[in-house]
Fold this sequence. Notes:
Blueprint: E1 21-27, H1 31-47, E2 52-58, H2 64-72, E3 79-87, H3 93-111, E4 116-123, H4 126-132, H5 140-158
Helix pairs in contact: 1-5, 2-3
Amino acid sequence: MTSKGTHVQESTGTVDASGVRAAVVVARYNSDITERLLKGAIQCLGEHGADHVDVFRVPGAWELPQAAARLTTQPAHHCVITLGCVIRGNTPHFHYVCSEATRGLGAVAREAAIPVVFGVLTTDDHGQAMARAGSGPDNKGYEAALSALQMVELFKTMGVE
């Protein structure tokens, strides 16, 4: 159902990134995957006209929430995009890292005045991760950056930039 022609005002966000300063926090662990995610995010930001992108590297997905939290307290960025990859192994370690990265980033996002976007792959194997880190708009880093830009625009529309 559309809101066109009614009294309902719909704000869905756009992809105009002119003037946007983005922070991308990327995990070094599984770097063959995370570097592809980063490439996708930077491609998206560039395609949509982001003026400035800062890349920050952390050891792994576990450290993403702490770095994101620190970045949200600084006025230098309009959004924070987090990128990581956790691949299931033979121990419960996968569950702990995935759960805490998810919980931590969710907590940061709820408290932050700017969008914090979750771009962490949690896959059963390396092949699944590679499939999600391909080229173009199907790359999950590209998708995370696009979500961040849409949220930045939405926040502006809401008057909470």
